[in-house]
Design goal:
Radius of gyration: 20 Å
Number of helices: 11
Strand content: under 5%
Structural class: mainly alpha
Shape: elongated
Distance between the termini: 55 Å
Length: 194
């Protein structure tokens, strides 16, 4: 039922938004709100692909009105990744700091994802050092193979190879225990220990 809409101007989507409290009783509030939010995000993304800035602004405004704080967080994340795509790293790092420290401080997955993005596109040591705080928080929330791997990558990028080695060993062990691939962590570990 909730998978049957994708356009925010459709009658069905409008019905879902207007009746979300009743639908939440049947499908859980979290699932209904997540579907609504994802639909707005998808429509913003599609409008941005065709560079319709007026439509993007209109959808963002409505999204904020309908979803409130959830929209604020989602829009900050979207703007962060848009800045990354546009290679506007000054804006990206400012938004990443906001998202990591204000909106996602208790979300180990999002913190780890932001750090992974930093490892892949950021070279300034000052920014990379800031990301170290975020990955440590991610690991503090839940130590899993991917955030250990991202921490090892970050340490290596900062030139802290000796510190990266034990972290990457833990990442390999954790990946094996989780039944996930340890290939990337092992490959970086091999490179650092040669």
């Amino acid at each position: 039922f909730l998978n049957n809409f994708d356009r925010i101007d459709s009658e069905f989507f409008r019905y879902v938004v207007e009746h979300r409290k009743q639908l939440a009783e049947k499908y859980t509030g979290e699932s209904v709100e997540r579907k609504i939010s994802m639909n707005y995000a998808r429509n913003i993304y599609n409008a941005s692909l065709v560079r319709d800035e007026a439509l993007v602004a209109k959808i963002k405004k409505e999204y904020l009105e309908v979803c409130g704080d959830v929209a604020v967080v989602q829009l900050a994340q979207m703007d962060m990744y848009t800045a990354q795509k546009n290679k506007d790293f000054k804006t990206m790092t400012a938004l990443a700091t906001l998202v990591a420290e204000k909106y996602c401080w208790n979300d180990q997955v999002q913190l780890s994802n932001i750090v992974y993005t930093y490892v892949t596109v950021i070279d300034r040591k000052k920014d990379l050092k800031k990301a170290e705080k975020w990955i440590k928080r991610s690991i503090e929330l839940e130590e899993v193979s991917y955030n250990l791997y991202n921490y090892g990558c970050l340490l290596a990028k900062l030139g802290k190879d000796k510190a990266a080695i034990p972290v990457l060993k833990k990442a390999v062990e954790a990946a094996n225990q989780e039944g996930n691939s340890a290939e990337n962590a092992q490959e970086l570990l091999n490179k650092l220990t040669q």
